[in-house]
Amino acid sequence: MVESTKTANADFDQKPGNWEGAGLLLFPLSLLRSSPKIVAFTACHDDCSAVLDLIIMTTSNSPIFMLGRAFRRLPVSSLLILVCCFLYALSVSASYSTGNVSGLTVKPGAMNVLVLTDFPDVNGMFSLWEGEWWRLTVSAFHHGNLVHLVMNVLAFWMFADLLEPKLGKLRYLAFCVLAATFSILPETALNQSVVGISGMVFAQFGLILVVRRHDEGIDERMHPWLVPICFASLFICIPLTMFAGVPIANGAHLLGLVYGAGVGWSCYDLRLRSRFGSYAGLVLIHSGLILGLLALMRPTWDGRYFAWKAITQTHSLADFEKAIELDPSLETGWRYLAEHYVETGDRHKAWVTVLNGARLNRSTTKLDELARYVWREFDSAIDRAVALDEIQQVFGDEHEAWIERFELPLPSGASSTVLAELDFPDMPAQRSVRLDALLDVPADVSGITRPLPSIFPLGTVDPEHPESASLGTPL
Fold first, then answer.
1. 114, containing H or E segment
2. Superfamily covering domain 99-297
């Protein structure tokens, strides 16, 4: 009786690939069973030993005990699953705290797209731009809903049972954390928030595709339909996102698969040829991914990054200029530059900046208001004539519609297409005008401070008398 009980229990414990286990309560019972005093006691009392073994055997199939044995067999995978469950519980708790009981109202993840309150067109991964790269790793272990969590955990556990005993605890933990971090880089580059360990699951799948060719035990334990099903799920998700709008991180799936296969190729295929080649392959793969992560922390191709940097850190005019150069749709950049030029007294540069910003952002109303403000800053007829000419240069045939849109007050009966007909004092049409005379510059002062606009007709130029030429006309 005693020996048969022990044999059955030992066979159950040592069964390879068993996902079930001894449970959280079985562990202290096992310790109790191995205690020196208990061993000495049961050695003299076979009945007590039999009863204790029977308790352990009969309770080993309960869910709690199965969970505990799973934790003993796959501690790293169990810990990562607990992290996922804990973070999801935090998200649900935060949603309940807002009074919502039907679903998540708090967006999950430690890395989300944020928006500057006063500048709604400036948005991005501000936390990542500030250097908090670890938020990518944490976000990977968040999940959007319970179905998302359960599906990912089941797939992860299926591959974990094959890989964790093969790789060992530390190497497997490093592989999972790096795969979770790097796999969500594609969506992050597209300024999209990503949650879930599906990228890590596909990294496991990519690694298994290589390992199975070197380990017959793993190859035999894999179901023949596993590989086709995984590839089918990978490619089915792409049209679901493109045509049905289902939010699936296809970039994370693809990069995870490539990362896992690359690590397997370096650790197994290359290792058969050269140990140095194996290490070099691993260094090359991870160096490229780290460079990609560093690039996302400083996205110099994104105008919103320079706008965010100028607003929150540098307050640099050059950063705003770079922002609108990379992203002309940034209304904030045009507004800031125009307001800066007004403050520094360069009204015409502010005016041209507003006009170009409005031309490239035709749905904006704030730039229209700023255009009217800058127009009121022109306190002379000449300045306004130049401003009208600049409207015609920027908008071309559409300039009349924009003058009407800006609600610019023109002189009664004036035509915006024939600007020389505007009623300027002492400025008859079709006659050359000296700019220094218009500005009342003393005769003993040489040099002209402002070019003549193209609306003024030019006089006859005499090379022998340079003063007869208007500024801007080469001799």
1. strand 114-116
2. Rhomboid-like (1.20.1540.10)
